[in-house]
Design brief:
The complex is a heterodimer of chains A (366) and B (285).
Chain A (H helix, E strand, L loop, with lengths): L4 E10 L2 E11 L4 E5 L6 H9 L6 E6 L2 E2 L10 E4 L11 H11 L4 H14 L15 H13 L5 E5 L7 H18 L2 E6 L2 H7 L2 E6 L2 E6 L1 H6 L4 H6 L4 E11 L2 E6 L4 E5 L10 E6 L5 E3 L10 E11 L6 E6 L5 E5 L14 E6 L4 E5 L4
Parallel strand pairs in A: 3-8, 3-9, 6-7, 7-8
Antiparallel strand pairs in A: 1-2, 1-4, 4-5, 9-10, 11-12, 11-14, 12-13, 14-20, 15-19, 16-17, 16-19, 17-18
Helix pairs in contact in A: 2-3, 2-4
Chain B lengths: L1 H34 L1 E5 L2 E4 L2 H8 L1 H35 L2 H12 L6 H12 L4 H9 L12 H25 L3 H9 L4 H29 L3 H7 L6 H11 L3 H26 L3 H5 L1
Antiparallel strand pairs in B: 1-2
Classes of the chains: A alpha+beta (366), B mainly alpha (285).
């Protein structure tokens, strides 16, 4: 089956700077694809090239197997939900949704029917006569999506549409977007710098940095099996240590960090040898905290230390633990099962983690 | 505290109220009274509508009156048609320094007085002027060409004089139109023309209306440009008012003409607002 969207060796140069550098990917029909990256990494440039507002310097963009390079934006079967939604303030809701249909020359009666159907579908029936500025943020969001969806595009592009919403609404809209995507059964390409949006909604995620794709994979792939140090550092939180390999045995690495802490890590198939400088990543939730050292017998990394601070944040609370020799401060997730409810600053604790949870990447290779 | 605030308000409003009452309200009331009296003997006056009747019985006055209105409307439309693309380019296409430089270029002609600017046009257009000489030297004309003292010359002068007052409000409204909205128009299948008609123009409507009102008023009340570029026979209504006051010493008729012009401009502006579905509050606020 031909993918809905395929980009081959896509490159965009602005003068001397290369915003998008030889990026290739394909998005299967009906899936939710996200491009995740820090601001300025080139993700908006990719989006604008797909929509047709920018001409690629080289490479090809195919929609449903047909190249769209010489097709102007108003003739592409691709629609875009803009960052600030870009609803037309001079029109009411029904005219906003019906705009694209009017442009296609659809009959007036059919437009009315289609608009009502779309409003029904997004759960806002009967608001067609209202003005744009009478709606709440979440409602505008849904109108912006409906305005595109009535045109039945092959691909819907979404450019950080949740950025302007407050936290509670954003959490709600994440779920809602996913539901809408399933309901309309359309291919979504979503760009964001917010990893939780990408992780929650996407079937596939591309992590982008400095114009290139670092890794393309499912949320679990990126989270548990990052390919590069950038992905390991960007997706989720991590303790990050720089150090040197002091012993390499198959997949297992013995590392001494620059501050002198010795730990066991894993290379997950990447080749490292003794003396290499590396970066090691350990997720706070992969580290177990215990009152007694015996509880950690199954882990091959064990450290005893004291609590230096407690960062309370509900379910995502952390403690910072400094090892007894004072080399490093380690962030550890605090279990909320009650046994550590009385933990105070300065209390002695033991922490441990399995060596395969410590991802080691050769430094400099990024 | 409350009394102090009240005092502050009064102090702030005083210059404005003085200006309004001394220069606008009181002269107009006096003008109205003057226009409603008729001289029956030396130093003897009585109230009558005679002055207004004179206007309606003399075809030259009516023709001049209507001609001024039509020409002003036409000049306003022409200014809008020329000013809109200019304003759109400055507001949306030009970026950074180019934008401010272009804006400044629109402003530069207004650093010299209207009289000098109009003389500039006369130097270009007159029989012995630059364009006439150029045409002769190229061989397109056999003798001197007179381009002054016709309606086209008046129109050129009016459009030129009013351009800034159209461009500035247009730039202000167009700048507030976000690029995203225009792009969304294209993205959803709109052509250049339909984006202009359905998105850009409705958005710019307050600017179009306020610019048009200002330009129309300026044209209607302009005295210098029609007189200098149109000559003695230009038949501009302000000239009639001038000649009644200054040449004929007939203040009563001049005042009546002044009032008719005021009524005319109010009626046309009101009509334009109704026609475009705009209200004065929406345009000014």
């Amino acid at each position: 089956m031909t993918p809905d969207l395929q980009c081959t060796n896509l490159t965009k140069k602005f003068g001397e700077t290369t915003a998008v550098d030889n990026v290739s990917f394909s998005v299967p029909a009906g899936s939710f694809f996200s491009i995740l990256g820090p601001s300025g990494c080139g993700k908006t440039t990719i989006m604008r090239m797909i929509a047709g507002f920018l001409e690629p310097s080289s490479g090809d963009i195919q929609i449903k197997g047909k190249s769209v390079l010489n097709v102007p934006p108003n003739k592409r079967h691709v629609n875009m939900v803009f960052q600030h939604l870009a609803l037309f303030p001079m029109m009411n809701i029904a005219d906003n949704i019906g705009y694209g249909l009017r442009r296609n020359g659809m009959h007036k009666k059919d437009i009315g029917f289609k608009v009502d159907e779309a409003l029904e579908r997004i759960g806002l029936p009967g608001i067609g006569h209202r003005r744009v500025d009478e709606l709440s943020g979440g409602q505008k969001q849904r109108i912006a999506i409906a305005r595109c969806m009535v045109l039945e595009p092959d691909v819907l592009l979404l450019d950080e549409p949740l950025g302007a919403l407050d936290l509670k609404l954003r959490e709600h809209m994440k779920v809602e977007l996913k539901t809408l995507q399933a309901a309309f059964d359309t291919t979504f390409v979503y760009i964001t710098h917010d990893q939780s949006e990408a992780l929650v909604m996407s079937d596939n995620i591309a992590v982008m940095n400095a114009g290139r794709f670092e890794q393309v994979g499912s949320a679990q792939d990126l989270y548990y099996r990052p390919d590069t140090a950038f992905v390991a550092g960007f997706v989720g939180d991590s303790n990050r240590w720089s150090g040197k390999v002091i012993k390499q045995d198959g997949d297992n690495t013995l590392v001494q960090t620059t501050s002198g802490l010795t730990l066991r890590g894993a290379t997950q198939g990447r080749s490292l040898s003794q003396g290499d400088t590396i970066d090691a990543f350990v997720r706070p939730e992969a580290i177990r905290i215990a009152h007694k050292a015996e509880d950690l017998a199954s882990f091959d990394n064990q450290i005893s230390g004291t609590v230096t601070s407690i960062l309370f944040n509900g379910a995502a609370s952390r403690v910072m633990v400094r090892d007894t020799d004072g080399h490093e401060e380690v962030a550890v997730n605090l279990p909320q099962s009650g046994e550590f409810a009385n933990l105070t600053k300065g209390a002695p604790v033991h922490i441990g983690w399995a060596s395969d949870q410590a991802n080691c990447f050769s430094a400099g290779a990024s | 505290m409350h009394r102090e605030a009240k005092l502050g308000l009064i102090l702030l409003l005083t210059p404005f109220l003085l200006w309004l009452s001394l220069l606008i309200v009181i002269p107009h009331i006096d003008l109205l009274l003057v226009s409603l009296r008729e001289r029956v003997g030396v130093g003897q006056y009585e109230i009558s509508l005679g002055n207004y009747l004179t206007f309606f019985t003399e075809p030259l006055y009516i023709v001049t009156f209507l001609r001024t209105a039509v020409m002003s409307i036409f000049a306003t439309i022409l200014t809008l048609l020329i000013g809109f693309p200019v304003a759109y380019y400055i507001a949306k296409m030009a970026k950074g320094r180019t934008q401010s430089a272009l804006f400044l270029l629109c402003l530069v002609p207004f650093w010299v007085s209207e009289l000098v600017r109009t003389f500039g046009w006369m130097i270009l257009l007159r029989e012995t002027g630059i364009i006439s000489n150029l045409l002769q030297s190229v061989g397109l004309a056999s003798g001197p060409v007179e381009m002054l003292y016709n309606d086209a010359a008046i129109m050129v002068g009016l459009v030129y004089t009013s351009m800034l007052f159209m461009v500035v409000p247009l730039i202000t409204t167009l700048e507030s139109l976000s690029d995203e909205v225009v792009e969304a128009g294209y993205d959803l299948g709109g052509s250049g023309f339909s984006v202009l008609r359905e998105i850009i123009i409705p958005h710019a409507m307050p600017g179009i209306v306020s610019g048009s009102i200002v330009v129309f008023m300026l044209c209607l009340g302009n005295y210098l440009t029609p007189t200098m570029l149109g000559g003695k026979e230009s038949l501009w209504f302000t000239e009639l008012i001038y000649s009644q006051f200054i040449v004929r010493f007939n203040w009563e008729l001049g005042a009546a003409f002044g009032f008719l012009l005021l009524i005319l401009s109010s009626v046309i502006v009101w009509g334009m607002l109704r026609l475009t579905g705009q209200s004065l509050e929406k345009t000014m606020g």
